[in-house]
Structure formats: C-alpha cells, structure tokens
Amino acid sequence: MALPAHSTDEAIRVLFIEDDPAVAEMYKLKLELDGYQVTVVGNDDQVLAIAATLRPDMIYLDLRVGEDLGFATLQRLRATDSGRQVPVIILSRRGPHDLAGRGFKAATLDYVVRADPGPSGLAWNIQNWAQNDAS
Questions:
Q1: How far is CA 2 from CA 18, 50, 84, 109, 132, in A?
Q2: Of 24, 28, 29, 89, whose Cβ has the fewest other Cβ atoms within 10 Å?
Q3: How many CA atoms lie within 13 A of 73 on its CB side?
C-alpha cells in the first residue's frame, strides 16, 4: 500500500482517538503548538463519521483503555474509503510484541507502540511521515 500524497504547504490534519478528555486535551495542545490541525474524538460511535468528514492525514489511536474496542475501530476505519490509506499510530502501554501482530493484521501503515506515550514524542511521527511523503 502506498501512503496518500500530502502537500507540505497544507496543515496536516490529525484525528486523535482518545476517550479520556484530559489526556486528549494534553495531546491536542502539544500537536497544535507544533502546527498540526487536530480533531479529537472520544466516542467510538463517532469515529467513522468524523473521519469521513475530516479526511485526516494521520490518525493516532490510543489503546490504553479498551484494546479490543480500539482494534475494532481500526478495522472499521480500514473498511472505509476515508480510512483505508491513512497512516495510523497506535499508542499503548503494552509492549510492541504484544500488539505488533494485531496492528499489522489491521493494516496499520505506520506503527509505533510507546511504553509511556508522552505528548512531546508525538510530533516526530507526523513530521517524519510528511517529509518521507513529500520526497
């Protein structure tokens, strides 16, 4: 699968799927300070509709709570035109070996598992993707 094209002149649209409002706000503020356009969705039932409207360039999926629900959401996203090719970064406290197989089976295009995902480490993933995509 090829990554979708992205112009570096446009703001990168990030969809952040997180059910904890305080955690979501922390990540949103950090990513916005780094220049990204961030939309947070906490309700699993709204993810598909928001993804179809937003057409994000990158998706962060937090699996801290409800790992099975998170992977089901990812599989539903992959079944849609708006979510099929979007790079996804999974945030989890579980180790990479625990989640790698499930992430790749769900067609994760960009995969990072962090033992302790803090807001400062998120932007490098977007910047790295945008730079690789522009070349």
A1: 26, 23, 11, 9, 12
A2: 29
A3: 29
Q: H/E element holding 57?
A: none
**For residue 133, what is the enclosing H or E element?**
helix 123-134
Q: What is the pLDDT of residues 22-72, one digit of tens each?
A: 988 998 999 999 999 999 998 778 899 999 999 999 998 887 655 677 778
pTM for the predicted model, two decimal places: 0.70
Task: Report helix, strand and coil shares of the chain as percent, to nearest 5.
Answer: 45, 15, 40
Three-state DSSP at 34 gives coil
Spatial separation of the C-alpha atoms in residues 20 and 43, rounded to whole Å: 10
DSSP character at residue 53: H
The count of other CB atoms within 10 Å of the CB of residue 84 is 13
Written as six digits, the tokens of 93 are: 């406290």
All domains of the chain in start order, with CATH: 13-118 (3.40.50.2300)
Residue carrying structure tokens 């992430």 = 103
